[in-house]
Amino acid sequence: MSGYKLYYFPVRAKGEIDRWAFSAAKIDFEDIRVNFGEEWRKEKESGRPPLGQMPFLVTPEGKILAQSGAIMKYIWKKAGLSPSDSFDEAVADMIHDGATDLRDLWLRTHFEKDEAAKETKMKEFLETTLPTRLEKYEALLKSKDEGKGFFLGAKLSYADISFVEFINSFSLMVKKQKDDGKPAPDLDELFKKFPLLDGHYKRVLDVPEIKAWVEKRPPSDV
Ligand SMILES: N[C@@H](CCC(=O)N[C@@H](CS)C(=O)NCC(=O)O)C(=O)O
């Protein structure tokens, strides 16, 4: 074992990009799933999580790091996979930060307690925000190798992980909504409008280590 320990709740949400990054970087890790409630309360009160939140990473040397994005980039760098060009690295950060904005907005919308507000926010997200942003991501992908590879070109980067993991998690949540008999958008229709992103999504999920992780990970609703 490499000695890396990743602590997060038993959900995908904010921690899953780190699990994908470890998998794609071929670094094994202990996927420690802390239960909501008592188990997390004790962990938080111990003062160990640097920002009082999860995910957080404990390195083999015992160093501790929080923030899902910082952890993902650290893993990528440790594996020697970081973009060598500083502008490319900034582009990868831009794509990751944009995906984080979408993820946070989606999660806030999904967990909105006021039903009327939820309906309004859901409509805005699905009909305006998401398609508008996807159009931008489609163009970004096209700008490198006509969109036949990854966001930075031929090589997979953490930008691909962050963006595709968001789309995957979002799609699974929408599917669950549909399975539960709740109104759910037709994502096949939506993605037909973005053929390059659609191909990219399949390409990233086909990376053997990501595919293997997705097949073996414990299921969760979020
Ligand atoms: N920006 C942070 C957000 C972390 C975060 O919001 N963590 C939440 C779970 S998703 C948490 O630890 N909540 C429990 C608490 O604050 O007590 C990241 O990406 O890691």
From TrEMBL:
Residues 85-222 form the GST C-terminal domain. CDD domains: GST_C_Sigma_like, GST_N_Sigma_like. Residues 2-83 form the GST N-terminal domain. Coiled coil: none annotated. This is Glutathione S-transferase. Gene3D superfamilies: 1.20.1050.10, Glutaredoxin.
